[in-house]
Amino acid sequence: MLYGDPPSKGTDLENSNSAQLKKYLLTLVVIWTVGIIASLGWNIYQLRQSILRVARTSAEISYEKDLIYRRWVSKQGGVYVPVSEMTPANPYLKIPNRDIMTPDGLSLTLVNPAYMTRQVNELAMEKNDFRGHITSLNPIRPENRPDPWETEALKVFEKGTKETVSIEMTSGKEYFRFMRPFVTENACLKCHAAQGYKEGDIRGGISVSIPMGPLRAIELSRVSELTVAHGFLWIIGLAGIGIGACRLRRQTLQR
Hints:
The structure is a single chain. The chain has helices at about 10-75, 115-130, 150-155, 190, 215-255, and strands at about 80, 100, 105-110, 130-135, 165-170, 175-185, 200-210. It has five helices and seven strands; from the N terminus they run αβββαβαββαβα. A hairpin with a 2-residue loop joins strand 5 (about 165-170) and strand 6. Helix 1 packs across helix 2 and helix 1 runs antiparallel to helix 5. It is an alpha+beta fold.
């Protein structure tokens, strides 16, 4: 081609094909990248939902365990145990025969359901930081007063709500908090009739706090694995797109 001559039709066609190929290639890269990001986001979302389901299941098991223990002790009318430093007589339990003595001189005190539940929960907290708390808007024992979160839950229970669940920070740690009400049963009236409760009333609730730290550690590990796996998949996809683009370019030039 002489200087000043217009470009040949072959050159125009080649440039046009090259531009179209680049546009096609860029579109594929964008689609592939968006797909990988969407897949990663969906997998992370599903993982986090699974972590929350594990926390909820743990909380429900703890709650049901406490409820069954309480119900058993309640049906027995309380359980007598030796008076000790760990289990002194309950000063808030105002009933006849709270304290008795065996013929051989062993002092026994009656452990009612609330007292038993509190001691079991204190042992659980020492072992694995699971926090269980029996509470009420009208507690007999001052230490059973509800915290602000429990207070709000107890108020909505009186309006018919069956449970309250949320993620909360307590003492600088993340907890899955779960609470359900418990209803006054006939066996409960032995200790609580004097407070004006009758059978069927919402008397309070049991809250359970599951530490999220161990579960978050598992979540972080799995998120890292998912991110690396999707990163490799993204690179493999880009390589495939690049190889396909080179072949398509060669075929185009040949034609």
